[in-house]
């Protein structure tokens, strides 16, 4: 019964990875949309694009880490 709870908890923790994938797509879509509307401002927004990408990917990696901790450390 305890193993079942670990598997369910790990599965729920990995849902954050799906949200990270959607978040990365939205970040790049909004950047591309803004760059096409105002190409001269695209270079100034590139650093924010990379920062948003890094934060979103970090959230996905953290959810994977929580899932692995639930499976093997608890």
From TrEMBL:
Site (Reversibly protonated during proton transport): 57
One family name in Pfam for this protein: ATP-synt_C
Subcellular locations according to the entry: Cell membrane; Membrane
Residues that span the membrane, as ranges: 7-29, 49-73
Any one GO molecular-function label of the UniProt entry: proton-transporting ATP synthase activity, rotational mechanism
Every V-ATPase proteolipid subunit C-like domain range: 8-70
Membrane topology: Multi-pass membrane protein
UniProt KW keywords: ATP synthesis, Cell membrane, CF(0), Hydrogen ion transport, Ion transport, Lipid-binding, Membrane, Transmembrane, Transmembrane helix, Transport
Record's GO cellular component terms: plasma membrane; proton-transporting ATP synthase complex; proton-transporting two-sector ATPase complex, proton-transporting domain
Highest taxon listed in the record's lineage: Bacteria
Entry function: Key component of the F(0) channel; it plays a direct role in translocation across the membrane. A homomeric c-ring of between 10-14 subunits forms the central stalk rotor element with the F(1) delta and epsilon subunits.
PANTHER family: ATP SYNTHASE LIPID-BINDING PROTEIN, MITOCHONDRIAL, ATPASE PROTEIN 9
Protein family (similarity comment): Belongs to the ATPase C chain family.
NCBIfam families: PRK07558.1
Protein's recorded name: ATP synthase subunit c
Gene name of the record: atpE
């Amino acid at each position: 019964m305890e193993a079942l709870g670990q598997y369910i908890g790990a599965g729920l923790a990995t849902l954050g990875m799906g949200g990270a994938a959607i978040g990365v797509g939205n970040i790049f879509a909004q950047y591309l949309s803004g760059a096409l509307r105002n190409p001269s401002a695209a270079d100034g927004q590139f650093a924010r694009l990379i920062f948003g990408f890094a934060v979103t990917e970090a959230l996905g990696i953290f959810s994977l880490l929580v899932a692995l901790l639930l499976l093997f450390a608890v």
